Amino acid sequence: MRAFAESAREMGCEVERQYPMSRYTSLRVGGEAELVVTPGSVGELCRLLDILSGSDIPWVVLGAGSNTVVYDGGIKGVVISTTKLRNIEIREDATVHAETGAILGAILNKTIKAGLTGFEFAAGIPGTVGGGVFMNAGANGGEIKDALTRVWAWSGGREIEIKREDIKFEYRKSHLPPGCVITRAEFGLGPGDKAAIEKNVKEYMEKRSRTQPIRMSNTGSIFKNPPEMAAGRLIEELGLKGYGIGGARFSELHANFIINAGGATASDVLSLIETAKKEAREKRGITLETEVRIIGKK
Ligand SMILES: Cc1cc2nc3c(=O)[nH]c(=O)nc-3n(C[C@H](O)[C@H](O)[C@H](O)COP(=O)(O)OP(=O)(O)OC[C@H]3O[C@@H](n4cnc5c(N)ncnc54)[C@H](O)[C@@H]3O)c2cc1C
What we know:
By secondary structure, this protein is of the alpha+beta class. The chain has helices at residues 2-11, 42-53, 104-113, 129-135, 144-147, 194-211, 231-237, 266-284, and strands at 14-20, 32-38, 59-62, 68-70, 75-81, 88-90, 95-99, 116-117, 138-139, 142-143, 148-155, 158-163, 168-170, 173-175, 181-188, 190-191, 217-218, 244-245, 248-250, 258-260, 293-295.
């Protein structure tokens, strides 16, 4: 681990030891990661992955950490953060080329300025390109898969190109080659009416601030919507809206959001998740599956 940290530093990456993941993730819970390494270029990212894949050090890649809960025991091994890989380029053929750590909202703003339509699904989603493609993030009637044309990914020691039609996407899930790390993506957009796009995006954002606890630390929807009904409505019908454990509780505004009301631990959050799962199963026969990714040591 020490040799890896040294190589990463020599490469020019930012290296932080024993980094509290409560500072990294949007829900603001979780223990320390042994090492957080932030490469400054896609080349550095690939070189780090080359080294890690030839070692026995456990590693995970994170973008903005807006769909991730880290256990209180923290993360053994390395977190590779893509947050500095933010380059976004809009080309004349109306394609957008973005590095994996580019924030979806930053891409949306650029496409609006350029009068392009097709990225409005991303309004209010605080994640990155890599996390967005991995999760097939979506809102406002669209998903990232609808705009995506190709991705590039580190896979088994080289950067490969994967066409959109060769990736199977499902609701909040992508089927990329196992172990691959998205490095860049291309989106195909079209010319649009700038005023109409701005109006739609404003409406999406206003609706979000009315219906979601955007001013509190949270991690978006906790559960995927089961086939039977919306997860938020189910949690509400189970009487859990506003129910809290420790510093965490189901939001009063939208029951499928868990908020950190101050001083929450991952254990509080996980106890809430387990409570909702158990009650949904026992009282309604419905299986709830988390949308949020839970990683680390218990
Ligand atoms: C206030 C709020 C509102 C939200 N609203 C929505 C919404 O409307 N719709 C929606 O879909 N989501 C929503 N989310 C959830 C979240 O923003 C999305 O899932 C987003 O796409 C996650 O991106 P991220 O960069 O934060 O991913 P992270 O949390 O950093 O990572 C998520 C997963 O992706 C993997 N990953 C990250 N980068 C890469 C990479 N380069 N290569 C391979 N795998 C990678 C990680 O290992 C992890 O398993 C919301 C979250 C918040 C906090």
